[in-house]
Amino acid sequence: MKRNWPLAFRGQKIGLLGGSFDPAHSGHLHVAETAIDLLGLDFVWWMVSPQNPLKKTSSQLEERLDSAKKVAHGPKMVVTKIETQLKTQYTIDTIKALRKRYCGVKFVWLMGGDNLAGFENWRGWKDIVEEVPICVVSRPSAGPRARLGRMARQFDKYRLPLDKASTLGNKKAPAWVYVPARFNSLSSTQLRARKKQNI
Prior knowledge:
Strand content: 15-25%
Largest sheet: 6 strands, parallel
Number of domains: 1
Helix content: 25-40%
Radius of gyration: 16 Å
CATH class: Alpha Beta
Order of helices and strands: EHEHEHHEHHEHHEH
Distance between the termini: 35 Å
Oligomer: single chain
Number of helices: 9
Mean pLDDT: 87
Shape: globular
């Protein structure tokens, strides 16, 4: 099977937006576009997970890839199943494999504020923080518990002020920024519920 690896060159800043994308929606696009504008990223890779280890089931991978491709508009958006190609399941393993494969590329992990609230449930979450800079874009479902959660408290001294966010991609981890951007209220859970109602 031919593997089409995303292109990236030494010195480029690449945002990594991982998830099930079941389905992808404008909230994901909001996170990606906000990060591109604020951090000056060259690209955002939408990494469609083969199976999120924190979720029991997901729709078929190809269906979720198609969903992401419909939403990820713009020349800086790249939809990929690179985790399937790398044969990784956990974020920490994916990040380490990408850094090994793409030497000199400056990766930044992107996530919505709703994911930050439960970030300590991710395998090797402390290692993730110490492996790559992280940009967290606020989401309406996150609330104050995300900003006051374990990760935010434990790594508070490494948090950049918003006016320094553009430097994040050049920082050595640990480094992170919380972006209180304009909310987008859509979620994959809501969209799946609507789909079931329309069947």
